[in-house]
Design goal:
358 residues
Length: 358
């Protein structure tokens, strides 16, 4: 799968139950230090863990750098990384070839690719493929640190339980960084309520979704452009590479439609250092598709994991009849805690791409 941002070209290969998955990126400048231990630690934030919300598929997710980084420094050549799949249970999917799982890509992929697509574990459509995005995001975040840019995300909502949002108050990067990386929630009491909801869903062979928020700090003025060059457009385009994403908002998002212009407008002022700031940030740090120097704030909605163990209605494509299905295998009862690092990664990657273009 080959895709491009403005300056970075990205190729992702493999599938959920293939021998490996790999990612190659062209366009990273040479001479930049990359701490591979820090990169592995960052990517490990999306790993499955022995928790109520996580899949029981426990992969090592060790990053093997094949090219583009030598002695911890980028060479200017394409950076290629591979991760080997060590714990697939492909037999769990042998009975699903003609009975598509609801809300999965099984049906549309079978039609589009004439039944030739490897759909074990979701194949190329699986959330496992976000591991490659996190590798790219981890590299991007290290490069952005050289520009004093920080990108941090956290769980804001799960199953209707809401924790603190950037809409409620200013949230500092250091506050987010101090959270438990396995389940980043600002309000610990709300975290316990979220875990209870996940536990209830799991007990009912069901799943729940939620909202991840992310904030980019210390952005320069001028990233992005008008019309199809907008930062909102770039980030939205890339964010939907994360399979569970079903919606994205910037700043106050849909709530801004309920405001008057006098309330929604972010009025400018000079701070004590003569830096231009805005009193509010309803527009999420973007005006006219271009960053204005305020924190860039986004909210991302993630759907409940579609693989649930309840019996569900579906079709049998071989006999062209209606039937039911009961999904076996190992699946997350809530993908949201593991998706935080994926959202961060997409945002960091888009910002890096714009920095390079700038």
């Amino acid at each position: 799968m080959l895709s491009s941002l403005d300056n970075l070209k990205i190729e992702i290969n493999g599938a959920s139950h293939a021998e490996s998955i790999d990612v190659t990126v062209w366009g990273i400048p040479q001479g930049i230090k990359i701490d591979l231990d820090e990169l592995q630690e960052y990517v490990d934030r999306r790993k499955a863990r022995k928790t109520i919300y996580s899949t029981k598929r426990l992969e090592e997710d060790k990053i093997n750098v094949l090219s583009g980084i030598e002695n911890g420094v980028t060479t200017g050549d394409a950076i290629k990384c591979v991760v080997y799949n060590l714990d697939p249970h492909s037999n769990d999917y042998t009975k699903l070839q003609d009975t598509p799982r609801p809300s999965h890509a099984d049906y549309v992929a079978k039609v589009k690719y004439n039944g030739k697509e490897d759909m074990r574990g979701g194949g190329r459509f699986s959330g496992r493929m976000t591991l490659t995005i996190c590798i790219l995001g981890g590299i991007a975040k290290q490069i952005l640190k050289n520009h004093n840019i920080q990108v941090e995300g956290y769980v804001q909502s799960i199953a209707g339980i809401n924790s603190t949002s950037y809409k409620d108050r200013d949230i500092k990067a250091e506050e987010i960084q101090a959270l438990d990386n396995s389940f980043r929630v600002i309000d610990l009491d709300k975290k316990e309520l979220m875990l209870e909801k996940i536990q209830q869903a799991a007990a009912n062979k069901d799943s729940v979704g939620g909202v991840v928020e992310a904030i980019a700090y210390n952005l320069p003025v001028g990233l992005g452009g008008p019309l199809f060059e907008s930062m909102e457009g770039k980030i939205s385009y890339a964010m939907f590479a994360v399979p569970a994403v079903k919606g994205i908002e910037f700043g106050s998002g849909f709530d801004i439609s309920k405001m008057t212009g006098s309330t929604a407008n972010d009025c400018f002022y000079y701070d004590e250092n003569k830096n231009v700031k805005t009193y509010t940030n309803n527009n999420g740090g973007i005006n006219g598709g271009i960053t204005n120097g305020m924190p860039l704030t986004i909210r991302v909605a993630l759907k409940p994991t579609p693989s649930i163990a309840q019996e569900q209605k579906t079709i049998d494509m071989a006999t062209k009849t209606n039937t039911t299905i009961q999904i076996k295998g190992r699946h997350d009862s809530c993908i949201v805690p593991r998706a935080v690092v994926c959202v961060e990664s997409v945002l960091a990657l888009c910002i890096l791409d714009s920095i390079i273009k700038q």
